[in-house]
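User: structure tokens for this one?
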Amino acid sequence: SLGLLMIFSASSVQASLSGTPYAYFIKQALTLAVCGIIFIVVTNIPLIFYKRTSFLIVLIVVASLIAVYL
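Assistant:
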């Protein structure tokens, strides 16, 4: 929440020139909410799932990193 306060404090003037002064704050708050939900889901998956699929997860991550640079 401190980060959201800092975003609002630093960007409210710039955002108010293009509309609402809460534009960046709302965008960051929504991102925080989505990431919080993803965090809760991922932490509730049993550890054995990650042990079984770790090689596949690593392959997907490496392929994604390569795709960024192509």
